[in-house]
Amino acid sequence: MTKNAIELNNFTKKFGDFTAVDNISLDVKEGEIFGFLGPNGAGKSTTIRVLCTLAQPTSGSAKIAGYDLIKESAKVRENIGLVAEKMIMYERLTAAENLRFFGKLYDIPKQKLEERIDELLELVDMQKWKDTQISKFSTGMKQRINVIRALLPEPKILFMDEPTLGLDPQTTFSIRDITREINESGVTVILTTHAMTEAEALSNRVAIIDHGKIAALDTPQNLKNMISEGDISVFGTKITNLSSNLIEKIESIDVVTAVVQQDHHNLKISAKGENSLNQIIDIIRNEGGNIASITNSNEATLEDVFLAVTGKEMRDEANEKAAPIQHRHGAPKARVR
After folding, report:
1. Residues paired with 266 in a beta bridge
2. Count of beta carbons in the 10 Å neighbourhood of residue 195
3. Residue 154 phi/psi, 5° resolution?
4. At a CB cut-off of 8 Å and minimum separation 6, what does 234 contact?
5. CA-CA distance, 87 to 100, in Å (whole number)?
6. Where are the alpha helices (DSSP H) in the chain?
7. Distance of alpha carbon 39 from the chain centroid
8. Mean pLDDT of 27-39
9. Is the separation of the CB atoms in 179 and 164 below 8 Å?
């Protein structure tokens, strides 16, 4: 029987009268890659900070690797690694010197530490850069060292917070492959990302948090099926004279559930109902829009699920207050530009 790597029960974190994480309960299985998604200010970063013992919960309970988050926080830290969004390294030190420094903080014996450093550098194909200063590395090279720094103590659970943010496509694919290798070695991975394709490609299950609550939790495929069950179609539409006014008109159509502006000419439109495409075409033409092409996708994407569940264009990270979740059928239409 598969054990739980993480167990949250009525987990809450407040800052004064602001509830950042609102009474959530979930389990993460050992060996999973668990995607943790949410809009800015939704509560995911706060949840990760608390689970990594960087802050304390206000109420509820949590077990990490079998240890109580509050009563056994030292044991929790012994069993986790954190790849933070901000890289944690010293620019003047070489790759090996950085890894030695952090390894000594974990009190890893010298010989074992040297073996571990060589092993991890090989994992990310950085052996030849072992004695090169971090300051001379590209952003992608730094991130590879940042990832293996978190693996030095051989954690059972690895938290990866936006690990591919700001990276070029080649490095992004490399970090994703490394993440899979880490997981295949038996490490449970908690992945936070705004890249829906990344979450879909890597995650066994995905939780979407919104206003501090879990708004959806399932496998990526089941979440996409949830949207499909509502008879939702996704259309790629190229409009040569696209304008904000035209987008607003499309959003006002009853059958349209979400509109994503991909560039100056292309929209991704999610709609429900058998005649939805005809209604969309009619409104575009009636408003003087010139349609260059339309493509029909039969399957919703994780991005469609995300927009249908969260249902908002932008979030105020600093001031947003917790509010009731609006379900898919009652959610306002979403637009991303």
Report:
1. 238
2. 19
3. 55, 60
4. 268, 269, 270, 296, 297, 299, 300, 301, 304
5. 16
6. 44-51, 73-78, 95-105, 110-123, 139-149, 169-184, 196-202, 220-228, 244-251, 276-286, 302-310
7. 10
8. 95
9. no
Which tokens sit at 85?
């969004």
Range name among 80-84, 208-212, 303-307 with the lowest pLDDT average: 303-307
Q: Would you call 328 helix, strand, or coil by DSSP?
A: helix
H/E segment holding residue 36: strand 33-37
| pLDDT score at 275 | 78
Residue 37 tokens read as 């998604």
Q: What distance in Å separates the CA atoms of residue 224 and residue 196, rounded to the nearest whole number?
A: 12
Better-predicted residue by pLDDT, 232 or 54: 54
What mean pLDDT is predicted for residues 65-74? 96
- Dist. CA 47–CA 178, nearest whole Å: 24
Contacts of 231 (CB under 8 A, 6+ apart): 272, 273, 274
Who contacts 133 (Cβ-Cβ below 8 Å, separation ≥6)?
Answer: 91, 92, 93, 94
pTM greater than 0.70:
yes
Give bridge partners of residue 6 from the DSSP assignment. 28, 64
Q: What separation in angstroms does the CA of 296 have from each of 218, 237, 270, 300, 317?
A: 25, 9, 10, 11, 35
> Rounded to whole angstroms, what are the CA distances from 248 to 11, 114, 125, 283?
39, 60, 49, 11
Token readout for 98 is 């950085």
Residue 324 pLDDT level (bands cut at 50, 70, 90): very low
